[in-house]
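[job 4471] stage=fold_predict status=RUNNING
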Amino acid sequence: MRSPSEAASSRRMPIRTGWPRAARTSSTRSWPEDPEFLAEIPAGRYATTEEIGKLARFLVSDDAAYINGESIRIDGGAARSL
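[job 4471] inference complete, writing C-alpha cells
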C-alpha cells in the first residue's frame, strides 16, 4: 500500500502541511495569557497568524517543490524535536 504522498506525487500533487500549536487569532484574542502554557513554549509566546501564513505561502510555492510527505511544526520550539 502506498502512502498518500506517494500516491499524490504520481499525479504531481505533493502533500505538505503546516502544524501550528497555538496562535493568536481573532477567535483566541480574548483568551487570557496562561503563563504555565507559555512556559512550555521556548519562544514564550503564541504564533501570529502572519507567521503561519508565511509558512503556508512557502509550502505552496515553487521553493517547496522538492518537499513531499512532510508536516512542518510551527510551535515556537515546543515539540523540541531533534
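[job 4471] summary: The CA atoms of residues 39 and 59 lie 29 Å apart.
[job 4471] exit 0
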